Amino acid sequence: MAEQLPPKYGKCFVCSMVLNMLLILCLFVGHTNWKPSWSMRAAMEAEAVASESCSGHGRAYLDGLLVDGKPVCECNTCFGGPDCSQFSPDCPADVNSGNPLFLEPFWMQNAASGALLVSGWHRMSYSYDDDSNISEELEKHIRKLHSIVGNAVTEGRFIVFGTGSTQLLNAAVHSLALTNSSSRAGVVTTKPFYPAYKSQTDFFRSVDYNFVGDTSQFKNATDGNANIIEFVTSPNNPDGLLKKAVLEGPHAKAINDHAYFWPHYTAIPAPADEDVMIFTLSKLTGHAGSRFGWAVIKDEAVYQAMSAYTSQISFGVSHDTQLVALKLLKFVAQGKGEIFDFGFETMRNRWEILGKTLSVSSRFSVQEIEPQYCSVYQKVRDPSPAYAWFKCEREEDEDCYAVLRAAGIISRQGTLFGADSRYVRLSLIKTQDDFDLLIRKLTILVSEEDGAKIM
Amino acid sequence: MAEQLPPKYGKCFVCSMVLNMLLILCLFVGHTNWKPSWSMRAAMEAEAVASESCSGHGRAYLDGLLVDGKPVCECNTCFGGPDCSQFSPDCPADVNSGNPLFLEPFWMQNAASGALLVSGWHRMSYSYDDDSNISEELEKHIRKLHSIVGNAVTEGRFIVFGTGSTQLLNAAVHSLALTNSSSRAGVVTTKPFYPAYKSQTDFFRSVDYNFVGDTSQFKNATDGNANIIEFVTSPNNPDGLLKKAVLEGPHAKAINDHAYFWPHYTAIPAPADEDVMIFTLSKLTGHAGSRFGWAVIKDEAVYQAMSAYTSQISFGVSHDTQLVALKLLKFVAQGKGEIFDFGFETMRNRWEILGKTLSVSSRFSVQEIEPQYCSVYQKVRDPSPAYAWFKCEREEDEDCYAVLRAAGIISRQGTLFGADSRYVRLSLIKTQDDFDLLIRKLTILVSEEDGAKIM
User: E strands along A331-444, which residues?
Assistant: First the structure.
């Protein structure tokens, strides 16, 4: 039959041949690019879950519940319904916790860079190849990152990993108490302070240390034999101020908690260079749930004691978590500061809106921090702290938490930070939805002020 | 030009058309099956690393060192060279640690089932959707697994997660000391015992508890007001015996460490049903490096105290680790006991070989455990404990560790377990290479015996 085809089909034949070649090209060039084998199912599962948009007001997780085989959306506060599209306007703005979800969109936008495939046989041993509990590559990248950002000196320093900086806080107290002197150490800090310093130190009821109060009570006690461990948070939680240790003397040791010492939140005037410095992934990349922190330590005896602590309490940090941290920090260090730009822009923007909202109020105020020269951006910049340290100025508003709660805002009481009940902390690092709702509630509250300033 | 083609090309045209159709089919049917988008790079990286065979005597890891862009093989003990093919015959057999690497081949053989893709925005919050630190799905699967295996009653019990069972040991001591009575609690255990019970309890130097010694000293002290916390390991580490609490009385509480209460190591006579039971991923799936354990608790006050402990020390367990544990346990629970078959077969095989090797010796012996009825396999089975509790029988071999060390075997001293120096622990759960080398060294040692039994 074919031989009877008229010659005019020749054109079709050429077209067909060209098509063949194109298709072959497609198959063997376009489509020879790699396809997963054993990792396929895991990749499919992850992308299927990620494809749930949840209306932009939630997300589905790989370990979330399934309904009819479909991953369930977990909605932002005040959003509900199967796809998180239903907003409850009467629901209070919850700005209590320090959940750093403002960085979630960054990782969604950089999905390929944050993705990690963990094999079923990843580092099953208790230790790494060098018999330590610490990934050498991760330690290298942490040092590299500090050097790029210029927020901490790590050359010639020891590094210990912890299950979040939380674990390292107590590890540091325990170690400094043992290496400092033989008498029981008193743990102090300056008001307003991060509540865990007190609650954690109290909780463990150690023979070697106990929480004894505010630094101001001990200023004159350190020239003698007083064995004091001072927690210093810089920038401070809750008020965002850069801080230095107050106490001096041969038996005064400081633990410098630098959780927020990153360009998202503060100008970096110079690299920190204290004896014991603590950092955490939580406020750097936003991965609070990963529970990963590290300490940078000058003194070898303190380093040995802190390593022993993390070994005794948990044989070090999960290898899976260390792998996740490496993936994230590699990208942060390789990138041209994208996450810092994203973080800073988001926070600055939120501070601008908050400032504008409160500018008409004489009833409420927030902390003021002077602009400072930032070595990262090489210019003077405004601070953009993680929290607003919010004050009720009116005499009758003694319980500021209650004032805000009545207006549909859940804050964190100032008294928890050792401060007056006129103060509360508002978290500005949660989701955009949380922030928007806070501003909506605050705007109403401020507009109801008698004698609100006219803009 | 085309129109001048002779009609005989018609056949070619048809062929070309058929080819067109086949290629299109290939492209749009064969190749429409799913391809990863943002997860592609992660999948490629993981499969590239996994494709390093390391001669079967090592493996490359995603967070290992790179040399010339190629992941470096991390070799089993006594193997070296770029591909781990070089064996050092004079290198000692190291059977000191309890690294459960005998299960590594299982996960390599089940690569697709163990693979997990973690997105860059996986559960960044401190807490899960229900404000807890615990993945609901993971808890569900843990309960399911205990019910399938029949090794623990979990109905109506509370579950707490820890950074390895290690963290939960101290969490339990701390909590029982607080909830038990107001006097300082004494922590005890029965020799030979897992050294961490003493070292960890000593390390934290608490006001509320301290390690006071062997249960035998306290048998008669518990009818009064003695406030005692007894560690019970069943099967016991190091000797593999099933154990029950020794002490009784209103102020005697037990922490039942069931790390090895899985079919790999022991017959399961009946589900355990004690007040505080501790389990770990390490000895179940072999993932010691993931640092994940759980406690099953009867009493709500103890549960609350242990939850508070894990919150204070680290805000719970890494969400990445919980995701890894879920992936692994889902497979273990879904499968038809493959991992138990694999684990038991491997261990039984090792015990057979060890038994044969030692059968000609009168100088050395190992523990004997009676066969027991196993509810999992529904038959009487021999035990296959994780460790050989090895004894030097000759009067002059007082330091059994030194005897073995001289023969090229690194064991763990019996004295570390509170036992006589005539005893050492040999780990049988490390890699096949470690086991093979142990047998090689033991065979030589036994063959040198004066008057070795003739087989």
Answer: 364-366, 372-374, 379-381, 387-392, 409-410, 412-413, 423-427
Q: Torsion angle of alpha carbons A355, A356, A360, A366, nearest 10°?
A: -10
The CA distance from B268 to B374, in Å, is 5
Which residue is associated with the tokens 């060098």?
A130
User: Judged by CB atoms within 8 Å, which residues 166-185 of B form the interface with A?
Assistant: 166-167, 170, 174
Q: Exposed, middle or buried, B237 (CB in 10 Å: 0-12/13-18/19+)?
A: buried
Chain B residue closest in CA terms to A200: B312
Pairing of strands B387-392, B423-427: antiparallel
| Residues of chain A found within 8 Å of residue B317, distances taken between Cβ atoms | 163, 291, 318
Nearest residue to B203 via CA among A117, A171, A71: A171
**Is residue A28 less than 8 Å (CB to CB) from chain B?**
no
Residues B297-349: pLDDT tens digits? 999 999 999 999 999 999 999 999 999 999 999 999 987 789 999 999 999 99
What are the two backbone dihedrals, phi and then psi, of residue A129, each rounded to the nearest 5 degrees?
Answer: -60, -30
Asked whether the beta carbons of residue A39 and residue B43 sit closer than 8 angstroms, the reply is yes
Measured CA to CA, the distance from residue A74 to residue B136 in angstroms comes to 13
- ω into B192 cis (within 30 of 0): yes
**CA B114 from centroid of its chain's CA atoms:** 15
Q: What is the pLDDT of residue B55?
A: 97
Please report the ipTM that was assigned to this predicted complex: 0.92
In our burial notation (b when 16+ CB lie closer than 10 A, e otherwise), range B318-346 reads bbbbbbbbbbbbbbbbeeebebbebbbeb
A156 CA: distance to closest CA in chain B (Å):
22
pTM over 0.90: yes
Q: Do B14 and A37 touch (CB under 8 A)?
A: no
Residue A26 per-residue DSSP state:
I
Map tokens 């199967």 to a residue: A82
Which of A63, A174, A287, A430 is best to mutate for the B interface (most B CBs within 10 A)?
Answer: A63
pLDDT the model gives residue B8: 57
CA distance A357 to chain B (A): 27
A64: left (phi over 0), alpha (psi -120 to 50) or beta: beta
The DSSP bridge partners found for residue B408 are none
Q: What is the mean pLDDT of chain B?
A: 92
Q: Dig out the tokens for B185 from the structure.
A: 């609690």
Contact residues, chain A, for B141 at CB < 8 Å: none
Query: Contact A313/B167, CB-based, under 8 Å?
Result: yes
Q: Is B287 at the interface with chain A, CB within 8 A?
A: yes
In the structure, what pLDDT confidence band is assigned to residue A9 with cuts at 50, 70 and 90? low
Q: Which of residues 422-451 of A touch B (CB under 8 A)?
A: none
Q: Mean pLDDT highest for which of A108-112, B3-7, B25-29?
A: A108-112
Report, in this order, helix, strand and coil percent for chain B, each rounded to 5: 40, 20, 40
* Angle formed at CA A220 by CA A214 and CA A226, multiple of 5 degrees: 80
From A418's Cα to the closest Cα of chain B, the distance in A is: 19
> What is the rounded (10 degree) CA torsion for B111, B61, B145, B99?
130
Distances from the Cα of B166 to the Cαs of A317, B199, B279, in angstroms? Answer: 12, 11, 10
Residue-level pLDDT at B3: 45
